[in-house]
Amino acid sequence: MVAQLAKMAGLDVSVTLFGTQAQLKDDVLTVYNEALALGITVEFWPMPKPLNNLLVDADVLVDGLFGTGLNRDITGNLAEFITALNHAKMSVLALDVPSGLDANTGQPKGVALNAQHTCSFITRKIGLYTALGVQYAGVRHFSDLFIPHDAYNAAHYTPQPSLPFSMHPIAQHHPLKHWLSTLPPMQPSRHKGDAGTVCLIGGDTSMMGALQLAGLSSLKTGAGLVKLLSHAQHSIAITQAIPELMCYDTTQLSTQVAHAKVIAIGPGLGIQEWGQTLWQQVNNLTTPKVVDADALKLLAMHAGQTKSQVNLPLNSTNNWVLTPHPGEAAQLLGTTAQTVQADRIAAVKQLQHRYGGVVVLKGNGTLVYDGQRLEVCLAGNAGMAVGGMGDVLTGCIASLIAQGATLFDAACLGVALHAHAGDILAEQQGQKGILPSDLPPVIRQLLQYA
Q1: Contact between 105 and 131 (Cβ < 8 Å)
Q2: CA of 210: how far to CAs of 106, 229, 240, 256, 271, in Å?
Q3: What are phi and psi of 338, to 5 degrees?
Q4: What pLDDT was estimated at residue 177?
Q5: Average pLDDT, stretch 304-314?
Q6: What pTM was estimated for this model as a whole?
Q7: Pick the CATH number of 2-159 from 3.40.50.80, 3.40.50.10260, 3.30.70.260, 2.20.130.10
Q8: Which CATH fold topology does 176-447 show?
Q9: Burial of 150 per CB tally in 10 Å (0-12, 13-18, 19+)
């Protein structure tokens, strides 16, 4: 159909099909005959002449070899065909998904076509926004093919008995403006107590910068009081850099967390005896928590020692947000980062089932899942792959919880603010050289649009 429209628009068009003419049937055969009637050249691969000879004069390759239904790895002649197309180094427009890319996981099924542009139809395929799908898809476009909006509105987070299973969304994406609207409004009578107290715990020897980044992020996101609990010798350096941060020795932990709205633990915590002791103290508290970095490693170590059944949830409370990157997620699940990345949606669901609460699986197409709702973030860029970025996210989410946001809303808003701030910096200054400390001031600016 694309070839016919291009031909009628006056373009020089040729079509290459994989297989033989004898294999064509039904609608494909009808379209084939229509193309011939329009004078379109149709060839079949394998062909007598090399594929590169056919493509040498082409400006654009339109990829419609496979669609969303591919459920097996591509091997043999098909893999050779796609590899040959990739070697042609042409501009590629993929229809719906690049051929060979799993539309749900964003992973190639053995081999996949590298596209510069991908136009997805009817629904945005989540595989284009997570894992390796981002680099295979190139610039992503979308067309609803004039589907009535009511049909989209009928699909909700949770399965609806009246809807066919195919209409249940795998995940949803909401713009930053939506998540900003979930933040409780600032009243004229607001005081620092209303803005909430955040307690951040971590910063072992040589790693106090991680805790400082989280503290800066909490302040810039609007927390009323931010208390850092770490080694006493870190206090002077931190308060000289950011005097608004309140620093305490960890011996005062029980006193300082007593009135905290949220505890965030993990940035720079370490997994030695000092960090293990703090984790055990905090893990027994009922205060809402954000658990990141080394605290996730300690959680995984503890879970590995205490689990009695593989599928038994290890956390009896839903009162925390876990923020693993793929490596930490692998430790929590007892698998490898490659396995996590092979199906990120399955991984985030396994994490939530096992540990409860809200899980933020970081990476390309960050996922937020609470057991029912799955949100995917479409913002962010490769320049954010810098040590300390996760600490900024932890402080941001903790601050939003302290201000009254629910765990899920805080996680989604924090992820969105963090990713959009990174994109703004990349657009202004380029992706290389973005520092985690650059983000909090931009996050503060984005909050003004609430």
Answers
A1: yes
A2: 31, 12, 16, 20, 15
A3: -65, -40
A4: 96
A5: 48
A6: 0.90
A7: 3.40.50.10260
A8: UDP-N-acetylmuramoyl-L-alanine:D-glutamate ligase (3.40.1190)
A9: exposed
